[in-house]
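step: validate -> pass
step: tokenize input -> pass
step: predict -> running
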Amino acid sequence: MWHVSGKTNHPMSPRKRRPGFSLIELLISSSLILFLIAGTAQLLGLSLTAKRNADFHFRAARLASSRLEHLKSLPHDSADLEAGNHEEDFNDPSAPERYRIAWRVEDLDQNLKKVVLDFFSPNKPRRKAVFCLLLCRELEF
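step: predict -> pass
step: emit ->
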């Protein structure tokens, strides 16, 4: 079909370019933005989990160090250093959670004791930190 201007009205003929974005361009750009937002959200979740774990382990190391120093200061035949299992619950003023320290004492020799200390929250017993201390009567630590 011919027009007066001499141009064809063919479906494959080039059209005038209108300003703006096509639907495909908008779909691609929105999917790219959604992909970047989802990746950022996942990284944020992982970083928060890592921070909670790091805070727990820092608190565990600080409190367990205090408990181990206390056990080192006791006489070799103290009740807290008798062979067997011992437990103590306490609240840390810097954290809202309650914690439990459980320690197991083994007599390895007449002059040597092994103390294995577990630090955990009773609400989350799977998250714990374990410390070990060897006490020698002759060396007095």
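step: describe -> The helical segments are 23-73.
step: cleanup -> pass
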